[in-house]
From TrEMBL:
SUPFAM superfamilies: Carbohydrate phosphatase. Keywords: Hydrolase, Magnesium, Metal-binding. Belongs to the inositol monophosphatase superfamily. It is an enzyme of class 3 (hydrolase). Its EC number is 3.1.3.25. It comes from the Bacteria. This is Inositol-1-monophosphatase. It catalyses: a myo-inositol phosphate + H2O = myo-inositol + phosphate. GO terms for molecular function: hydrolase activity. Its cofactor is Mg(2+).
Length: 266
C-alpha cells in the first residue's frame, strides 16, 4: 500500500515542477543573460533560475508551511515537520542559457533525511519522471525499468564535468582512460536527466563527481525505483564525492573501475 504522505508530497512536487517548467519554457527572455556566477565564471545563474526557485518554494510553502527547503539558488529553511524539499530550479542552466533542450526542473522530498518522492520535469522533451520510495518509477504513465546490463565494452556511459579547471582536468583524465573500455561516452549537461535516462534505458550508466544534493536527489530515487543500483565509492551512498547509477551487473563492474581510476577525487 502506498503511503499517503509520500503520495501527497509527490503530487505537490509534480504540480510545482509543472508550473516551473511552464514558466521556464514560455517565459524565457530572448536576450537571457547571466545574472550571477558562483564557483567560477562558467558556473552561472540566470534570472530564470531565481524566478523558478521562487515559484517552487512559494507554491510548496503555501501548501506545507512547516516543511524545510534546500535550493540551489539559496533557499534554506530548517522546517519543523521532518520533511525537507530539495530543489534544483533549472538543472542544466548552461544548456538553458544557450537554448539547448536538455534541462529540467528537479524536486525531491525527504522525510527525516531519506528521499521519499522525486520529480524531474523535462519540458523540452515533453516528459516528466517521478517516483516514490517503494512505489516504482514512471515516465508520465509508463513504468520505468533500467536497460539489461551489456558487457562493459558495449556500455553507453554518461558523465559530467565540474566548473573548476583543476577538477575538469582530472575528470578528463578519467574519461581518457575509460573511453576505450566502453561503447562510448555521453555528456548531456543535466545530471537529473542523465539519472532518469538510466532509469528509462536510454543510458547504461551514469557517473559524476561534484554533484550537490539538489542535482541528484530526485533523479537518484527515480533510477533506484527503476531497478538500477546507485552509489558512490565502494560501500558508500551516492554523494558529491561520486555518484554512479547503472543496471546492477554493470554497476558491479564500473564501481571498482571508477574507484581505481580516481573518479572520486580532484
Amino acid at each position: 500500500m502506498s503511503d499517503p504522505l509520500y503520495d501527497e508530497l509527490l503530487e505537490l512536487a509534480l504540480e510545482a515542477a509543472r508550473r516551473a517548467g511552464t514558466l521556464l519554457r514560455e517565459g524565457r527572455p530572448a536576450d537571457l543573460g547571466v545574472a550571477a556566477t558562483k564557483t567560477s565564471p562558467i558556473d552561472v545563474v540566470t534570472e530564470m533560475d531565481i524566478a523558478s526557485e521562487k515559484l517552487i518554494t512559494g507554491f510548496l510553502a503555501e501548501h506545507r508551511p512547516d516543511d524545510g527547503f534546500l535550493g540551489e539558488e539559496g533557499a534554506s529553511v530548517a522546517g519543523t515537520s521532518g520533511v525537507r524539499w530539495v530543489i534544483d530550479p533549472v538543472d542544466g542552466t548552461v544548456n538553458y542559457l544557450y537554448g539547448l533542450p536538455s534541462w529540467a526542473v528537479s524536486i525531491a522530498a525527504e522525510k527525516d533525511g531519506e528521499t521519499v518522492a522525486g520529480v524531474v520535469a523535462a519540458p523540452m522533451r515533453g516528459e516528466t519522471y517521478r517516483a516514490v520510495l517503494g512505489g516504482g518509477a514512471y515516465r508520465d504513465g509508463e513504468r520505468l525499468h533500467h536497460r539489461p546490463a551489456p558487457p562493459l565494452s558495449q556500455a553507453l556511459v554518461a558523465t559530467g564535468f565540474g566548473y573548476l579547471a583543476e577538477r575538469r582536468a582530472g575528470q578528463a583524465e578519467v574519461v581518457r582512460t575509460l573511453l576505450p573500455r566502453v561503447r562510448d561516452i555521453r555528456r548531456g549537461g543535466s545530471a537529473a536527466i542523465d539519472l532518469c535516462d538510466v532509469a528509462c534505458g536510454r543510458l547504461d550508466a551514469y557517473y559524476e563527481r561534484g554533484l550537490n544534493p539538489w542535482d541528484l536527489a530526485a533523479g537518484e530515487l527515480i533510477a533506484r525505483e527503476a531497478g538500477a543500483l546507485t552509489g558512490g565509492r565502494p560501500g558508500e551512498a551516492a554523494s558529491g564525492e561520486l555518484t554512479l547509477a547503472a543496471s546492477p551487473a554493470l554497476f558491479e563492474q564500473l564501481q571498482p573501475l571508477l574507484d581505481e581510476l580516481g573518479a572520486w577525487h580532484d
